[in-house]
Amino acid sequence: MPKGVLVDVSRCIGCRSCQVACKSWNDLPATPTVFSNNWDNPPSLNATNWTRVGYHLIEKGDQLKWRFVKTQCMHCEEPACESACFTHSFVKTESGAVIYKPTELNQDYCVGCRYCMIACPFSVPKFEWDKAFPFVRKCKFCYDRIKEGVEPACVSACLTGCLKFGEKEELLAEAHQRIDSNPNYIKRVYGEKEYGGTSWMYISDVPFEDLGFKTNVSEKSIPSYSWDILKWTPGIFVGWGAILTALYTYNKRRAEVHHEEEMYAPVQDEE
Amino acid sequence: MTNHFEDYVNSDYFLIIGANPAEAHPMAMRHIGKAKAKGAKIIVVDPRFTKTAAHADIYVPLRPGTDIPFLYGLINYAIQNDLYQHEYVLNYTNASYLISPDYSFADGVFSGLEEKDGKLSYNNKSWSYQTDGEDIQKDPTLQDPQCVWQIMKKHVSRYDIKTVSNVTGTPEDTLKKAYALYCKSGKPEVSGNLIYVLGITQHSYGSQNTRATCMVQLLLGNVGLPGGGLNPQRGQSNVQGACDMGMLWNNVTGYLKVPDATKHATYEEYLKAETPKTGYWSNTPKFMTSTLKAWYGEKATKENGFCYDWLPKTEGKSHSHMDSYAGLEEGEIKGVFCWAENPSVAGPDAYHEVKALEKAEWMVCVDVFENETAAFWKRPGANPADIKTEVFLLPAAHIYEKEGTRTNSSRDVQWRWKSVEPPGQAKSDLWIADRLFKAIRKEYASGGRFTDPIMNLTWNYDKPGQDEPDLEKIAIELNGFKVEDGTVLGTFADLKDDGSTACGVWIYAGYYYIDPKETDPLLKVPATKRHGTEDKTGLAIYPKWTFAWPLNRRIVYNRCSSNPAGQPWNPKRPYIFWDGAKWVTPDVPDFGAKDAKTKEPNPPEKTAQAPFIMTADGQAHFFVPSGLISTSQMKEGPMPEHYEPVESPVKNPISKQQSNPVAKKWKGEFSKLAEVGSKDFPYVATTVHYIEHYQTGVRTRNSPYLVELMPEQFATISPSLAKQLGIKPGDDIIVSSARAEINCKANVLPIVRPLVVNGSPVEIVSLPWSWGFMGLSKGAIGNELTPFVACPNVTVPEYKAFLVNIRKA
Amino acid sequence: MNYKIWRFGKWQFRLTTTRYVLMALVAIMVVAAIFRFVLGLGAVTNLSDEWPWGLWIGFDLLCGIALAGGGFSTALIVHVLHKEKYAPIARAALVTSLLGYIIALVSLLFDIGRWHNCWRPFFYWGYHSVLFEVFWCIALYTLVQVLEFGDIFFERVKSRPLKVFLEKAMPFLLILGIILPTLHQSSLGSLFVVAVDKLNPLWWSMIIPFFFVWSAFFLGPAMVTFEGSLAARAYGRQPETEVYQSLVKVSMWMMIVYLIVKIIDLNYRGVFSLAFNGSFESNMFLLEMIGGIIVPIIMYAIPSIRKSQQGVAVASFLVVAGVVFNRANVNFTGMAKAVGGSYFPGIWEWAITLGFWSFLVLAYCFIAENFGILPKEEHAVSHAAGAQKSIAG
User: Which of A25, A119, A212, C88 satisfies CB 3.0 to 4.6 Å to C194 for a cystine?
Assistant: First the structure.
């Protein structure tokens, strides 16, 4: 059964245990950082930082709101990275995890073209820029732990129940139950429909647009966009080929063929 | 804490003041969050809009050091609007008790203030109860002007919302909203949980701050029942254990008083002075005798006063951390042991404390890393050649590299197993202590002055074939046993004053006891090692999860969870109550549920007489009377009163008495203070913590993952102050106080905002203090700025409110 | 002119000052290339997680391929539609195109992180990827172009059987050589369809593949004109102005269609007003549309400008610049807001790009000087004049 994680933004205290647990479990190195006025170092996701809690201090008049939002791979139901990869280096596993095969399954087909990075609507895949033979890195939903029946490292480190791991369908139902039973919640489960749905879902008591979420987004999956175009390829190939052949044959019969050899010559020196 | 972390889920209202659990006690937020999900309301009172405040229903900003006005405003509001819990106040507190007619209060000063040798102190005689022989006089109608209730009512009536707002800088309507919300917990069936930590305690009147929190909770009937209580979350994961073990200079183990040679020359005198006739402390002789038996074994006999003479005694002087550094400074102290402590970063006025260290002849540091104290001789600006102190650094094992117990704020004494071996030459603290004592004893074996206490101390912890001392032997000694056959005791009720029992820490009695009636083999282990997760009540009471002192009691003063007739205040949340024939006790009752002799149940009307068994009068105190043995008497008055911090930007708006008249201050190097309303140091600073760096940062600043999250020292200022000073986020700034100045990054966030006090805005600076010059992440030491003044009762330094200036570097 | 000539066997190559400079640039590129392959992309480029694609993709690949579009559009016009009057420029267009593709492929090899895996896509088919189509089409088309060039090559390097084989295969190659670029020119646009919420709606469209292939096509004649004018100047020959002015009319009509479709598309998606909101994106868009489309249309439409060598060359340059600008807008301007951060190519990135294009110029010159790709002058002029007459007739 596909798994999921429900993130209840209203319950996060910004302790960032998830961030450290992720690094710890995945053996990712710490990177040097400098002071951040927002306190939410490191400044962005990168090849050694697969999850990050962003701090959002929202000032509305005299009132302050402060929310802490964990970001990581959303593990799309129809992953853009998987469809964008022309060497099949990503795969959506049965558990719902979207994983990168070269590092996770030792199937090294990736050429490092980084189209996955362009394609991902959440800008999740990151590149090992400082390596001579770099890999693409990102959250793997701890598929190795899930396989053994253990929740992802970040979820197991979460103190407040902000992160909840479980069967995706059950979590979705719970998400709706929570937002329906408490008027403080925004009536939206982010990840239910966005880009065709994702394994990670968010609910919040603060509008998603204030928290750095892309809200005005397509409910169509990214792969379906490219498929809408790619599906015409064979038709164009055959149709265009037929037209060209017909034109060629027709025009050839009609026109005189010039002796092209007469027309061209190498440039000669002006001696 | 009176209650425990799991119990938070039962709370209907939270008043979190001077605490930021989201950063400092994140696991507590788990339980607060559970209650919130069930509909609990949260009020956070803090100078900063903290991560905890982010989860509050009402956030109350206040100026550092004005907690008493805030809390008194709440008490006054509850009384004026009749929102307090009448039956509770009348029966379980000393509200009806009459106070001596000699008591008075005027101009911010209580009766009895005297000057002696240029130092002010109180003669507290007039703060006593009116008595008729042995009987304390009461007025159950609460009408007598000398009754505690009327005195308190009058005392707090000066703290109306307008006055409070003028002192704290909190907008009036915010105060009103917060008071109205929290006073809802004054209804009998509702529980309010007051959480505080160092934001309350670290003031020159810190003890009175905590008193004010107690008064709020008593007034609203919130002590002793599920979801209520006073819950000071300890500042460190095992600080509760450290205090239990007698790490405070004025306590021996189990909060027994340290003998004072000027008062307790003999054991008889000690017992006489420290044993009240009523209340549970009347058992003091049993506890102290058993303690002495644990320490001196066979040598301790009734005839020799159980070797009381061998105990070290004070001579009427204070020996706190600050006094010790003053002693170093004055050349009185020659050597220093810094064991798992880093005063160069943690101490008040750390700048001068470190300078005082230079006067020590030797210093031994025991820590996981070379910390700033161990490296003080090579600190920036110091010339190692000039420092003669001989420094020894003993590498210690980290908590996960050794076995033993830790005691958390819930009083849970939890056993921890070793998970990895310590690296290199690092050894457990126990190993180091063991070898140290053996070395000392070896020295004394060849003679010396007063060798008996050393040569005869019980020290039999060797285990054949094992390098580490035998933990089990130590555990049983702490737990208590019968001297004749070594039977492990299950309760301190079995302790005797005749020398037939020995017990290292009386409050821990039973923690290493194996319940003979237990049938589950997994739970048939010493209580401290149990991991039973059964909760029969649905009230998050897990009696078989480890052991909570005292007696595995999870909520103390739990007689108060039901009314005087024994019926639960909240019928939907019955806890300990009288079912008509006996007491129903899902938790260990904190009162005589059964008659000690007949074993018959004691009826409610009898047990309602003394619900607070640790006080001599059996009642909780709005007014702390003098004349009761073993009841801590407050040095600056029987009730709290607002004083300004020693360093304050304003004159005390409440009274002529500017600051605590009996606050502790020192001379010489440690006397540097900014004057009231100082132009040189116009901003109020308060020290803070962040989740990434624990305490002095010794461990966390050496952890690459945490350094990555929080790499540099900074100070947070408001956007308005930043604008005024032309400072941009991330600029290098200099923060200075009358003691020193430090360099750090400017953090500009609206989480601090100027508060209007006495008509003019006061800017607030929040300063983390977890940095130092060692480790992976180096930064300035915040505590170099803090003042060397303290609360007179417990000598806690005034870290939370002092004056600074800021300029661009 | 004063220059030396290298001669080796039957080959020759002029050595001018400009060419020394170009050769120096190629040498610098080789050094930069060593750095890039030893130290990785991070060490030599300003690429980042926000800007995974930079100069080499945005310019060398996208523009290189687009500029090489002259090859397939002239192939279509000359060989399929048999507009024989344009035949004189067909070979030059083919050579430019081939070189453009080779540059694009090499720059791609530089750009991909795991270049040692570059052969893998032939065996592991991610057919649901637009890049799959791009990859295969470009790979095959480059092969086709090599074979097409073989026809020229074997004029000089005599190999009878191969020449015969190629002549036989030529019709098939020509048709394949139009289908494949049609597909991948459009697919290069389709690559950005996935960037649905990243690429500014002024550029993002479900018919972005149409815009790409269409612009690559109308770019062809303009590119041929522009490059032919340059070549003529370089070699002191008479430019084929007559051919150009006629050829660019194809571009003109196609650009008019492009403009109309663009306006309809923007309106249909309700984002037309975005073009005039004064934002950075809108200004860049207007610059692209006015400078690269509208102005050249007008210049082409006015006979006096079109028929003057200078006029047609300038207008064509604008078209070329417009398409380059468009690709840059798609890859950089349109994405900037969504991805954050900033990107400007680093010195080594420039060095490598400059090296590539210097190499292209040198290779073009070498081929021009050793193979028959430029028209024989007198013949061509009279032929063109004849063709003109026949149209008039």
Answer: A119
